[in-house]
Amino acid sequence: RNMSSAGPEGRKKMRECEGLIDSLVYYIQGAIADHEPNDKATENCVCILHNLSYQLEIELPESYAQSIYMQRRNISNNDKTPGCFGTRSRKVKEKQQDTPLPEEKSNPKGVESLWHSTLIRIYLSLIAKSTRNYTQEASLGALQNLTAGTGPMPLAVARTVVQKANGLPGIRAMLHVSHPAVKKTAVSLLRNLSRNTSLQNDIAREVLPDLVSILPESVPGCDIACETTASICYTLFNLTQSSSHNARLLLSAHGLPKVIAISMNDSNMFSKASRAASVLLYSLWSHTDLHSAYKK
């Protein structure tokens, strides 16, 4: 667990170590099957996998990435195909959104297991069944890492979490735990998921009222709560930016007074949350059909 947080070279060596990732997954599967999701060894295994999934999209070798993801739909030979990993441009993002998702191997080995639906379902199971905060946080954090990029892999993981594995109810429950780091990581995961336009309506329907309910009445007084508040605002921004229906959902959940109060705090220490709330307000105002409702 300590070695897995030693940096890029350490992660690379551990990902390449034959049988290591498979053994960690095997152990966790056994713990879940034996109804032992709270033991310390399971926590350690999940924390290692969490660390090994960090920056996975960027750190995989290009040759390996291309061998997995080059299932393209009639892309012209004249069209320069961008690399799937490590790029953040808008054009590439649009191209990758139009790329078919990679087909899963039925029996993944090693690093392939890190984004396979089997492990995604394991994380969601631990989120739902474990009462150990570090295990919950590491499971949420691994999913956050896997959904952080813009290529086919993060998109496939996001769709698996939201649509195939019905993961939103378990994530939603984590919004209401008392442990601040678990709550912060759950919100960060939802922020990543909410970037996918095809998933936004599902996410809004399932968790938007909960996100509004955990918004504070004003800017909170500690760093982690302030970061969580900013993340909530950016998640709500993603969900409402292109949807008047979702903006109305925020309004009916009594979110507007909270967002206004957070935006009006001009203390430098908490400007991150206030800035995020202001961005959200600006976006909400773009829905002109809601102006009269806002004014009321």
UniProtKB/TrEMBL annotation:
Q: Where does this polypeptide localize?
A: Cell junction
- Give GO cellular component annotations, separated by semicolons: adherens junction; cytoplasm; intercalated disc; nucleus; plasma membrane
Bias (Basic and acidic residues) ranges = 94-107
Q: Which GO terms describe its biological process?
A: cell-cell adhesion; desmosome organization; heart development; intermediate filament bundle assembly; protein localization to plasma membrane
User: Where does it mainly reside?
Assistant: other
Record region (Disordered)? 79-109
Q: Which SMART domains match?
A: ARM
User: Which positions carry the signal peptide feature in this UniProt record?
Assistant: none
Keywords noted in UniProt: Cell adhesion, Cell junction, Repeat
What PANTHER family does the database record attribute to this sequence? PLAKOPHILIN-2 (PTHR10372:SF25), PLAKOPHILLIN-RELATED (PTHR10372)
* Protein family according to the UniProt entry: Belongs to the beta-catenin family.
Could you tell me what this protein is called? PKP2 protein
**Species of provenance:** Poecile atricapillus (Black-capped chickadee)
